[in-house]
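Exercise 3.2. Students should predict the tertiary structure of the chain below and write it as structure tokens, then compare their answer with the key that follows.

Predict this chain's 3D structure.
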Amino acid sequence: MTGDSIACPQGCGARAGDAARQSPMIQQPVARFPQGRALLASFAAMVAALVFLAWQAAVFPQINDDAHITFRVARHLADGRGLVFNPAERRQVSSTPLYCLLLAGTRRAVGAEVPQAARFWEFVFLAACLFLLWWMVVRLGYGHWAWLVPLLAATEPVAVFLSRGMESAMFMMFVLAALIALERRRAVWASALLAGAVLTRLDGLIACTLAGAISAHQMWLQRKTTLQEWWKTRLLPAAVFAALVLPWFAFATVYFGNPFPVTIRHKMAQTQTLGLTPFVIGFLRDFVWDPRLGVPYLRIIPFLIGTAALAVKEKRRFFLVEWSALYLGVYTVAKMPFYLWYQLPLYVPAVALIVAGVAEIERWVRERSKGDSFAKRTLPIALMLIILAQAAVPWPSLIWTAMQPDDSPHRDVKHYKAIGRFLAGYAQPDAVVASLEVGLIAYYSNCRILDLTGLTTQLSEAERRMNPLELVLSRQADFVVMEKWIYDRQPSDVRARFEKEYGPVARAPVLDFSHEVLLLERRDSARRSQPPRAS
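Answer key:
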């Protein structure tokens, strides 16, 4: 684990033969810490990336609707109501207990609103991911190109929407740190970090599977080991992992009746029931093809070369290729739907693979160039500039739309927030609001929520087969929030029955975006409304 190149001492013919059989395009680089101008370039790039990320947070302040589900649970926990979405309903709707505890603790400690706390921690975790990824690239022997890591990671347009208040950045920070610990043979640290990943998001078990395979391989190679070594490298790490993870699973089993969040089954069913794009198709579509220019992303070339380079390395392994393949495979087999925030665990290692590919191209050109140093770097620098330029293509459009007065491009976030705040001043606290998008409505209205998709509300099998309006009539909700195009698709006979009992709220704000939003109130529920008050 300490070697820096593929050079072998005289006599290790087998390994020398293996190295000789490698492609001339891919060799083991020497791992040197950046010095002089290379270190200064990395520092400047990191500062620029962090400033750019902070600017993104200011220009694109909108937070995903799903994130507000966790926000509401965190606020209830901080306010002493328990780990619940609706008061007195013990249903594990948040899939990220550690992130939820962090947000609740921040609110409790400094009194911050949960969304603001989420944006702060999101920035911290993204910064940590940039540093860990930079450190990986340096340790892999590509220190002279490490400055490219923060620039690629921060300027990728989809990164603006990858986390959006979710736990993705925190999850990926734990995974990257665990991969570094595995490379350095720090088994106890790796176990603790993997436990953090599992408690942040249940698909941390994918990283645990990879770590288990690595451990099994090492056990096979080191079959003859002392009891002390066995304790340090096998039993103690397993005990640390169990001590951190099992208490939560035991608590969740007692508190919720099930240690697994309902989100998993719900998300897996959405691909079939709602006809959503499968994850593997959506990811490959976004990663391979540039829809604005109508051409493939040129990053594919260094990405494939970097993937091949890291796949054949013999000494320093951070398992980025294995992690990416396993993550993509599990999400494909599980038939998970395509959501942007599920992409971050693939985009982060992809940055390291792209940088490795650029460095390998530069080395290959340098070895074959007979001209001056400028000619040796022309191809890799040109390729790097084209990659950055192609990534920057959508930024002018994104900036322009973000500066528009209607709060584009996330008008839906703005308007659902407005509905929630309106209900906070119009409805009684015990009013029941039925909606398909429940996060923002729930967080800002503080009303009880009837989730028409069955995520935050327990629905029977018969109720799951009902269309949304039938479910509202069955549960007798006091208010209904629904996009007009969904309402118009309901059967006419159901709409006729529904309109006898529900009508529009006269004082509701006018909300028009991509589709009109309807806010309706049950006609005989005057007891549920009150004079408007400040929210």
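Discussion points: The chain has a mean pLDDT of 80. Residues 227-256 form the longest helix (30 residues).
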